[in-house]
Amino acid sequence: MLDPKTIEIIKSTVPVLEVHGVAITTRFYQRLFSSHPELLNIFNHANQQKGRQQTALANAVYAAAQHIDRLGDILPVVKQIAHKHRSLGVKPEHYPIVGENLLAAIKDVLGDAATDEIIGAWAEAYGVIADAFIGVEAEMYDRSERQEGGWAGLREFRVDRKERESDVITSFYLVPSDGGALASFEAGQYISITMSIPGEKYEHIRQYSLSDAPGKPYYRISVKREEGCGDDPDGKVSNYLHEQVKEGDTLRLSAPAGDFVLDRGDARPVVLISGGVGLTPTLSMLNALAEGSSRPVVFIHSARNGRVHAMKRHVEEIARANPRVSVHWSYTRPTEQDVQDKAFDHQGYIDAEWLKKVIPSESAAYYFCGPVAFMKAIRKALSERGVPAEDIHYEFFGPAGSLDADD
Questions:
Q1: Which helix (H) or strand (E) holds 298?
Q2: pTM for the complete prediction?
Q3: Which position among 29, 62, 137, 367 bears the catalytic label?
Q4: Would you call 203 a catalytic residue per the annotation?
């Protein structure tokens, strides 16, 4: 627990963090990687270059300062971040390093405004917050290792099958190289892959949603090949997986993690909405619901066109076999062949008006995933329909962001 004076000081810094938060976290990462370059083996370099990680950390620090007198309110966020930390292999010994560099970054950016009193208060607050993360993550590490088929750290998996799903998405079927049991997971969770790419100084870690239902003798990930645009280069890991990794090759995986999962205690209808490769967690959910649930399901997917639309036939087969499942396709830029084949139900971006036509009732659990702009539009459309915030669930690919319209 923090004393009232510390809480008062932390809260007084909230306006400053709102203005200078990203500058502080940018300086923090500069200091961190300069003094501990080995941590570049953990962090996603692309997210660093795009500024996404800096913004996500700034938002987390700002939220912690806002709620410093009631940290229990941000426990869901702590758990969400802790899942990622456990998947990446963040350990208790990393937290003092982070704290030292974060406090130094605050001093660097704010200068004399960061008085000894303020730095002291933030040092005390950081200790409490770090202890919360360490405790939650310790439970996650223990649970992951102790479950049947579970493991700690990284485990080698063999690529049993590699299957092209569309012009840009390929699936990889992964089985344990040691022939041992396979840990179960919740539909919607992800795994981390740690890769050593020839010519690269540091290892790269990427998190990919598991795209099939639990209970299979394999894990399946379905990876979009990220093509560069403008100043953004091609995705190093996704292109390496597509172009270099072959059937029979070995990949190193962490155990499944993530809190974007179906609430199995909810008997209401489920609405699954995805854009692009955001299809992967919602497809896992659909497969799980088709195999072991009587809940009605509305499955909505947005793609550019039929050439990049993955797993379409599979989803339509599920719908034909399950009258309680309805499927709806939205193409933003359909090809002439798509138009001729009547391959989609809606042209353009998904909006509230079209959702009203394809979703029979607002009383449902909503899960969606896709590009940030897509998710902002979906959240806005659902809110306009009067869907309560507690019924809306979503996941960012990469560092958490905001779905507020102005962000």
A1: strand 297-303
A2: 0.92
A3: 137
A4: no
Q: How far is residue 2's CA from residue 180's CA, in Å, rounded to a whole number? A: 46
Query: Going by C-beta distance under 8 Å and a sequence separation of 6 or more, which residues neighbour residue 122?
Result: 10, 13, 102, 103, 106
CA separation for the pair 329, 309 (Å, rounded): 10
Asked whether 225 and 236 are in contact (CB, 8 A), the reply is no
- DSSP assignment string, 70-130: -GGGGHHHHHHHHHHHHHHT--TTHHHHHHHHHHHHHHHHHGGGS-HHHHHHHHHHHHHHH
Rounded Cα distance between 175 and 181, Å, is 9
- DSSP state string for 37-56: GGGGGTS-HHHHHHTHHHHH
Q: Around Cβ 87, how many Cβ atoms within 10 Å?
A: 22
pLDDT band at 51 (very low <50, low <70, confident <90, very high): low
Catalytic-labelled residue, pool 95, 190, 219, 366: 95
Write the DSSP symbol of residue 245: -
Q: Is 95 a catalytic residue?
A: yes
Closest CA to 330 of 311, 309, 344, 310: 344
φ/ψ of 313, rounded to 5, equals: -60, -40
- Residue whose entry in the numeric block shows the structure tokens 């758990």: 79
Looking at the chain, the number of H-run helices and the number of E-run strands are: 13, 12
pLDDT of residue 231: 64
